[in-house]
Structures are given as structure tokens and as C-alpha cells.
Amino acid sequence: MNIIVIGPPGAGKGTQAKILEAEYGLKQLSTGDMLRAEIAAGSDLGKKAKALMDAGELVPDDVVIGMIANRIAQPDCAKGVIFDGFPRTVEQAKALDKMLGEKGKPIKVVIEFAVNEEELVNRLRTRIQQTIDAGQQVRGDDNEETLRNRLKVFREQTAPIIPYYKGTGLLKTVDGMLPIDHVTQAIKALLK
Ligand code: AMP
Fold this sequence. Notes:
The chain is 59% helix and 14% strand. The chain has 9 helices and 5 strands.
């Protein structure tokens, strides 16, 4: 079973993807996590991606499409994948359809997280403060200015994939502003 979760940064996609991963035996693939691993490893790809990520801009389509193509071929993805943060452009969505179509394992459902943007900014402020209070390092793109740009990039470049999936009949929407366990219940109901 392959699932896509779509929503602006801070909508709770990653949190829900991790819960579903454990519950359904799927593999969560977050292109954001994969890119941060490249940065941590000091790879050329990581070096190129860092400036874009810190500014809240998207990394080029061919880079993330290549990463996903390699990753879904690994044995731990055989039971299915929760795509978290990918696709982020219509170009990426089309490439993913092609890849999964070739494997005969198409997307089962695309879950859109509907959110209130101002509430996301408030959530980010809280998260930054909690990270600082815990003595941990704040992510390079975790600041209000970058978040505002990431929200703009979401509206302009990622939101067009919503009508794309609506057209395929796969799109379902959940209220991302509900408490975490309510969102989980709503998603489980969709997957029945
Ligand atoms: P995330 O952790 O999903 O919020 O991603 C953090 C950052 O990584 C984004 O703001 C982008 O700069 C980059 N990124 C992650 N996934 C993608 C993607 N599918 N396409 C392009 N850039 C991405």
C-alpha cells in the first residue's frame, strides 16, 4: 500500500507518517530527512541542497526524483511507502506515478492536511522554544522568515498537485488542526 501525505510545513505530516509506519508496516520516506542526511554527511548533494533548504526553496526535481527512485527499490520499501514531503511539484507527482506504475504498485490514497497558516506559524514558535529549552539544536530552516517562504513555495509550487490528484480520484482531506490522535483516527478511517 502506497500513501502520499500532502500539507504545508508544520501540518503534522511527519508525525502522522511515523504513526502509520508502525501501524501498517509501511516505510516512511521523507525527502527532507534524506536531504538533511546528505547535509550531515557533507556530500556534494548536501552542500548544494543546504542553501536552498535554509532559504525555504525547493531542491531541483531531478535531485529528489533520483533519490526516491533509488530508495523505493530497497527491500524495506516492498510492503509499501508513505511518501512524506514528496511529491512537491506536479513534475515530481508525474515521475512518481510513472515509477510506481512500472512496479505495478500505484498510490492507494493521497491525504491532504488542511490547515490554518497563522496557526502553523504559532506552532513553529512553540516548537523552536521547546527545542531551545531542551538544549537541542534548532533546524537551519526553523525560523519564521523561512517558514513564511516555505508556505509561499507550498502555495505556488506544491498546491497544484492537489487538483492533479483530485483528478485521479485519489485525494482525501483531513483536518490537520485537530489534535494528533484525532487526525490519526480520521486517517485510519480513510484507509479502511
Ligand atoms: P521537509 O523536511 O519535508 O519540510 O523539507 C525540508 C526542505 O527540504 C524543503 O523546504 C526543501 O528545501 C527540501 N525538500 C524536501 N523535499 C523536497 C522535495 N520533494 N522537492 C524539493 N525540495 C524538497
